[in-house]
Specification:
The complex is a heterodimer of chains A (394) and B (281). Chain A has 17 helices and nine strands. Chain A has 394 residues and is of the alpha/beta class. In chain B, helix 9 (182-192) packs across helix 10 (198-213). Classes of the chains: A alpha/beta (394), B alpha/beta (281).
Amino acid sequence: MFTNFFLTLRDHGVPVSLREYLMLMEGMQAGIANYSINDFYYLSRTTLVKNESNLDKFDQVFGHCFKGLEAPEAEDLLAEIPEEWLRKMAEKFLTPEEMEKIEAMGDWDKLMDTLKKRMEEQNERHQGGSKWIGTAGTSPFGAYGYNPEGIRIGQKEGRHGRAVKVWDKREFRNLDDNVELGTRNIKVALKRLRNFARQGAAEELDLDDTIRSTAKQGYLDIKMVPERHNAIKVLIFFDIGGSMDPHIKLCEELFSAARSEFKHMEYFYFHNCLYEGVWQDNRRRHQNRLDTYDILHKYPHDYKVIFVGDASMSPYEIVYPGGSVEHWNEESGEVWMKRVLEIYQSAVWLNPTKEAHWDYTHSTSLMRQLMSDRMYPLTVGGLESAMKELSRKQ
Amino acid sequence: MKFTGTDTYVATPDLMIAVNAALTLERPLLIKGEPGTGKTVLAHEVAKALGKDLLEWHVKSTTKAQQGLYEYDAVSRLRDSQLGSEKVHDIKNYINKGKLWEAFAAKDSPILLIDEVDKADIEFPNDLLQELDRMEFNVYETGETIKAVNRPLVIITSNNEKDLPDAFLRRCFFHYIKFPDKETMTDIIDVHFPDIQNILVREALNLFYDVREVPGLKKKPSTSELLDWLKLLMVEDMPLDVLRSNDTKTMIPPLHGALLKNEQDVHMLERLAFMNRRENR
């Protein structure tokens, strides 16, 4: 049972290892999860999930693997049934003769008892069929989805999360790492791209060297070194205008995060595809155009290059000379892209459109090919892989 | 020995399981969560509940893993050697114990808090892998091996500024303190201000969750800010109707300075209030 759970977790992309699985077994042996499924859920969550972005996936897999394991306890179920609803249901479940009989007995409590029994039976019958987890068409009855003839019981949340299974609540939904990007998240992702180097004025005492040198010289010989700084250098090319307009907010966030994270960062704009000219100020794009050649000559090959764009255009704009929508380009975009990639070995393309849609646009797959598959979605996950690629030693 | 929360700390069942698992299996516990949800306080409260000593190691951007083990003070030895001090012959005089050493050496296994582990350099957790796993390390200068007498409970907090390496994570239990729901929040307030009027709390909570739901806030107010704000409300003896009023003129909660720590957020709220007023006109 547990092995299956473990393997399903792996299949769904929750990074669990054997070590964690053994840790869970150890915890079970030590009796931490005392035969209660809730405790087992908490224990397995704390051992197997190590990142809040995976919590939602874990909840889903857990719900899937262990559904039906815990038979709803009759007592709990009944505790959730509101009394007025019971009264209402009386008409439905009891025949008029029965009602009369009971009323003749004048015992409301007895009526309730009968009703409860009926309810239990009814409940069991329903259990065989559709269950609570995401099955369409059954509305919630307490925690356990169940809809007798259109009368809907509002969900009364148990004090201890008993009514709703904790994992079914999927409270961590919005922490999944493909959803939201704020500057802070981006900064965290960009931090992966760090390369500390000592540059500039020697201001720190180098203790090891001082000791070595002192021992050698026979007198106190103090050695200094420069402080460590992030020495990574980045060129960012932003696609601007047209189909990029819906992604402006995302690009702005990326831009401001990159600005504060990288000391050496240069940015340029282009439209759809890179050609012989780029610009740095969108208002003066036609007056102050920079020659792409100048950029290739100015910045040495150890700069990392990041393209940001949706790469959705007509394929002609990439492949043929004169394909640009804005001007006559002597050489095709493909030639220019190749030129850039030849000089800068570390380069990635960040695409703000969804990865699943890339294959539907011919130009996107074309550009992806040009980038030799180094195209990543502009999500936290994608950014991280992109930064990993960039920090790879060439 | 089980942790079940204290009279000043409300622990959710999942948090209790996580702490107890870490206690029983003697593995580190990694705590993440929004700032102000009581990550650091947890270590204090666990120590209080179990009656153990708490050792705190606050990590900064310049902290090195070695500093947690020990530091060899070469400079004072160098100085002493020049002054011809007797101390200089024994290297042990120049080895300063770090927090990890203290925790390992303690007789009654203490609780070690490694606070804000993500502040340090990316390599920091990697450098502590073996030390936290085996709870032992070598002192190269003297050649001794320090081994934990009783394995301490290590609580590590992170604000998610940096990712932690997988190898490190595999050795820890993990708990994400999610923002408490209204019920838990009421419990928390009960624990801190037992005599606060019920109605006041309810109104204040509603207002608080409304503020949290304002889209685009840079820093959403969290538990610790709420507690501060309530304290202020109590001191000021704020009348109930001020909190309750849906009057558009007072859309901004009273004493909002305790809740919002960012002037852009205050402006945002003011602007929203203004727009709301115009809509209602």
